[in-house]
Amino acid sequence: MERAEKSRAKCRVFAKVNLSLNISGVRGGYHLIDSVVASVDVCDEVSAVPRQDGLVNVYMRGMGSESIPLERNNAVRAGELFVNALGTCGADIEIRKNIPMGAGLGGSSADAAGVLNALARLYGVEKEELYPLADACGSDTRYMLTGGFARLTGRGERVQQLPSPRTFPMLLLVPEGTVSAGACYGEYDRSPDPLRADSARLAAALARGDFAGVCANVYNALGAPACALCEGTAEALAFARSLSPAACAVTGSGSAVFALFESEELCLWAREKCRGRKGLRAQVVHTVRASAR
Question: Fewer CB atoms inside 10 Å of the end CB: C or N, the chain?
Fold first, then answer.
């Protein structure tokens, strides 16, 4: 077995929002998507300490993550895949969660990517070796390895990094309810949405730093299904629209909603309007660029 190069490895992994999300078909039982995504500065923190044996222990902290069963924990799966595929020793891993669960912010994939990145640093593994492991952990885990602005196609495993000369503030609204991704896709299948976002135009607008062009192409085909499944999501989206943002949408399969405004000051104003609303957490977040790892 390979000896760890460092006594401890730490990394942060960021939440994502779907600026656009189209459903383009089904293949092998999985939905195919075309989505422009952006990382935002809400992150989980991963810390890994090497073991002398091959065990992977994952300790979750925060956001109710302590109750995730081990057999359903994507971070555990990522760690075990890494050790089995690369023949390293195991690790004791702690994850401090700040990304809300069941909100469409990519928290499960983020934790899997964070574990892979932390173990790669711990054992001196190149990033390219992580790609097949990430793909085995979930459709957008490969994207989460680096984050930033990107266009995801296929099941989400095809990642095209996108340039952007600027970042964007936005208001993130997280209701109390959660949405099952599987149930949301099932709801979509029962009532497909004929409307589509233009992800190519959105990507081009990002490259120009064109805020209006970005906002004109914000759309999520899973928004209506998420609202049908979660009353809190429907209320959050309606409230976001009442604030007259430049654009707003559900992210992923819900339950969270984001709203884009033209300035930081307008985001802060919108957050103040949310004060006192029961069952709705509001915070101002900012997009962040891709990381080296």
Answer: N
| Residues tagged active-site | 16, 140
Instruction: Give the rounded percent of residues in the chain with a pLDDT score beyond 70.
Output: 97
Rounded to an integer, what distance in angstroms lies between the CA atom of residue 72 and that of residue 182? 14
Q: Which of 66, 61, 95 is nearest to 78 (CA)?
A: 95
| Pairing mode of beta strands 219-220, 9-27 | parallel
Q: Is the peptide bond before 255 cis (omega within 30 degrees of 0)?
A: yes
Question: Would the pLDDT of 4 be above 70?
Answer: no
Structural contact between residues 79 and 51, judged by C-beta atoms closer than 8 angstroms: no
Instruction: Write the CA distances from 198 to 149, 201, 255, integer angstroms.
Output: 16, 5, 23
DSSP string, 143-202: HHTT-SSEEEEETTTEEEE---SS--EEEEEEES----HHHHHHHHHHS-------HHHH
- Length of the chain, in residues: 293
Q: Give whole-number Cα distances, 140 to 11, 74, 89, 132, 152, in Å.
A: 18, 12, 26, 12, 8
Domains of the chain, with CATH numbers? Answer: 9-161 (3.30.230.10), 169-288 (3.30.70.890)
Largest CA distance in the chain: 58
